Amino acid sequence: MTRMFARIATLLLIGLVSIARAHAEQAHAIPAPVVDEPAEGATAEVAVLAGGCFWGVQGVFQHVNGVTSAVSGYAGGEQRTALYETVSSGGTGHAETVRLSFDPQRITYGRILQIYFSVAHDPTELNRQGPDRGSQYRSTIFPTSAQQAEIAKAYIVQLDAAHAFDAAIVTTIEPDRPFYPAEAYHQDFLTRHPGNAYIVVNDLPKLDALRRIFPGFYRADPVLVAAGSLSN
User: 16 or 69: whose pLDDT is higher?
Assistant: First the structure.
């Protein structure tokens, strides 16, 4: 009996891996942005992006060279509703979001967006990503400067004009929205729970795609959230 259950578990795992590999094929190799920020004197910049469940988006960017921090959280709503149970209702205006700190000398904002659109999520899905539904899973860029907003707008126009995807990009651009870190148990979720069924099916393929499409930007060891660093 034990051997039979082990066999069933193995078959289920094989099935999950097969599904994950099928999902990985949906990643897109897309052109780099024509409009990007110049690599000047700054060594630190912040990007705030939403693209479905924050576990996967955080997990992807934690493996990107030049990213020095990736924190899961919420943006788009009020501070008092920036709680997982409340955001999950879909009525707070918040989206599950990731705040990235990065070194623009090593990776530009435009390259961050290229990875975001290419492997971190599907920008053509409206208010959903994979199995998740609701406005809290929307595709949204929260620019932290006017320059970031212009780069994002220009890139969306560029990708739509090039028909980089089979459908139009539905990503919204929402400036001047504060970011609120999520609960500690959501941080580094992909790294801490690589065998979780949701992670195996929906998020590990994104890491495979990152390694395959952007080998020069892939880092094997993720940059994790430091203990006690979660502050607004």
Answer: 69
